[in-house]
Amino acid sequence: EWIRTRTGISVRHVSDGEPTWYMGVQAAQQAIATAGIDPADIGLIIDTTITGEYCTPSMSCIIQRETKAVNAACFDLNAACSGFVYAMDTAHRFLMTDPHMKYALVVANESLSKITNYSDRSSCILFGDGAGAIVLTAEEQETKACEKIHSDGEKGVSLTCEKGTYLQMDGRAVFQFALSRVPEVIREVLKEAEVPVEEIDAFILHQANSRIIDGVAKRLKAPKEKFPRNIEAYGNTCAASIPILLDEWNRSGRAKKGQRIVLSGFGAGLIWGAAYLEW
Predict the structure, then answer these.
(1) 12-16, 55-59, 128-132, 255-259 — which is least confidently predicted?
(2) Residue of 109, 161, 209, 236 with catalytic role
(3) DSSP conformational letter for 221
(4) What residues contact 160, with CB distance under 8 A and at least 6 apart?
(5) From residue 227, how far is each of 73, 200, 203, 216 by CA, in Å?
(6) Of 64, 67, 191, 222, which residue is the least packed, with the fewest Cβ within 10 Å?
């Protein structure tokens, strides 16, 4: 009850031995199958994680091997809980500038249980393990897709994890940072897209804390119903939270063609960002 009241989390899932790359492979294979494409047509794989098993090879190279995406360029990206938005932004820029690239695969996979100190009640109640993936393609369209990403390294001490240690977090500082920066970057990206807040059908936010999501909704003066959430079932899965929620939102039938949606990630670094797109 204490955890649910303060975070909105009821259940979390913890890896029982399977490596981070393995979870990423499962998500990647599902995304490729859902997209109905030949893995050989993927020109780029970006994996975003802070809990990879290896310094090298990269998670993306392992995923390339397992998915048979033999023609893809591969690299990993570390942007913590903003990783999925950062990776989407990066993949989008590749697709816009390389006329020969048909598809990009973005994978977010995290095993936060590996770096969680379960004797620290201020943080161990928050984190879970999981993975999600998405296939992107470039198409001519009238609508504008755009992203905005930011960082504030001076405040990075609010959420840290040195190699071989556990996550350390100043929860209050991170909470205040999210409530300030997330509405700000969402307004920024919508201004560029020339779309008012009122016309957004869904805000898919990083699932860090239910109170943060409620606070962002209040500051944007948007109804809570437009903020899908699944934090109660998974907890904070870092970079994986947005694609997991996006996939559930799609598979449940709530995603409709033409809907206007905003994605927003925020977390360690400190890093934050948002993306606007039409489904």
Answers:
(1) 255-259
(2) 236
(3) T
(4) 167, 168, 169, 268
(5) 34, 10, 5, 9
(6) 191
